[in-house]
Amino acid sequence: MKVAIIGSRGYPYVYSGYETLIKHLAEGLVEKGVEVTVYCHKGLFSERPKTVNGVNLAYIPTVETKSLSQLLHSLLSFIHLIFNKPDVLFVVNAANGPYGLISKLFRIPTAINVDGLEWLRPKWKGLGAKYFKWSAKQATKFYDLIINDSEEMKRVYQETFHVDSEVIAYGGIIRKSKAPELIEKWELKSNDYYLIVGRLIPDNNADLIIEGFINSGSSKKLVVVGDVPYTDEYASKIKGISDERLVFTGYVTNQNELAELYHQAFGYFHGHEYGGTNPTMLKALAYGSAILALNTAFNQEMLNGGEFGRFFEKNAKSVTHLVNSMEANASEMAMLKQNSPKGITKKYTWEYVVEQYYTAFQKLRRN
């Protein structure tokens, strides 16, 4: 079976949840004897080998702009694909919804992972939001299989677009602390700080978490890992907040350092608002973090209604109250840390994720 993958930045490039999915999926499919081709953004790769780890790579150019780079890259990749037809095409990102018409016209069985509710994200106000919702609707018309990463997102697509979808989550890999001294580069001590990990964008709600933390009676630090790769007023405002307890690390690309930041934190704040199965949350579970999450249906699903974390509402006062109550009950935080790896159930293992995709692709090929 030949499978082509379009819509990510490429392989083995890892920048976001999509690339992490593509990495594990491509490698897992190759182990099962599948011939996999991943379409890559040519400009992101200074070296361009034809094959890495058994995964075939096609380098397609694009214009590197925030709004158009992925759309143009996908379009050119679809055109290339017409002359190199696979047995099955796998597409990520609902923005690629309209291109399903191409694979439909050329009778290429195609599945798409539509990910989160992009049209609700503040960064896509106006025309951008309208495009994402329209594009998601086109995906439900043109693609042979819609894949969502959570039961709640499946429900949203049923209610919004009246279409059924298959649920396949993302995976997490349980890891224990290996080098706690790595956090010392930021002058941090184990269990003496809270952690936020994610892009500094409005729908991740770092601003209200920081405000709530500052207003608490905590003497611990709050470490903020992440940034945005462009000049942005919201991100700049957050990084400009002055409090001796705040530590801004920017991006942490060393995965061992990032893992230790999770391991050694007193608590991990998860403010992500729109999306299904969140890879950052999976890391927090797999790395044994005490999770304090925004109360959304998606986070409730991942934390099994509170079995693997605690929740705060979307306001600073709720964060303040949670910080004060958790610090008054350190034994509960310790229990959460011990319990959270149990949240990596079968559906959140990469082995099971790959197996589900493999089965789905086989069905598409036969049909």
TrEMBL record:
Report the residue ranges that make up the Glycosyltransferase subfamily 4-like N-terminal domain in this protein.
16-167
Keyword Transferase: yes or no? yes
Q: Which UniProt keywords apply?
A: Transferase
A single GO molecular function term of this UniProt record: glycosyltransferase activity
Would I find Transferase among this entry's keywords? Answer: yes
Write down a Pfam family by its short name.
Glycos_transf_1
Recorded hits in SUPFAM superfamilies, A to Z, give: UDP-Glycosyltransferase/glycogen phosphorylase (SSF53756)
Q: Where is the Glycosyl transferase family domain?
A: 183-342
Q: Which InterPro entries match?
A: Glyco_trans_1 (IPR001296), Glyco_trans_4-like_N (IPR028098), Glycosyltransferase_grp1 (IPR050194)
Q: PANTHER family, from UniProt? A: SULFOQUINOVOSYL TRANSFERASE SQD2
**Which protein, by its recorded name, is this?**
Glycosyltransferase involved in cell wall bisynthesis
Native organism is Roseivirga pacifica
